[in-house]
């Protein structure tokens, strides 16, 4: 399995609304068309209204690469910048897990 964690810090409340709408538009397409995407979880952060945290888990690196090439993901990646103050990405190697297998 291959994973990543992404922390987005949004510019302001208007940006948060726009970003959340973009996510709401993109996520159903990920669910419907990406069998190699095992988990794509979007979180708000308690007491930090301008932060969003994504946890993504893929069957393998090839599934992640396929995810990145999807038109809906490319659109998300192109559009998200207008809402962001910063982004931090950590690529993860799963050592052990409960509940998700590839």
From TrEMBL:
Transmembrane regions listed in the UniProt entry: none
SUPFAM superfamilies (alphabetical): Dimeric alpha+beta barrel
Domain of life: Bacteria
Keywords for this protein: Monooxygenase, Oxidoreductase
One protein family per Pfam: ABM
Alphabetical list of InterPro entries matching this protein: ABM_dom (IPR007138), Dimeric_a/b-barrel (IPR011008)
ABM domain: residues covered: 2-94
GO molecular function, a single term: monooxygenase activity
Descriptive protein name: Antibiotic biosynthesis monooxygenase
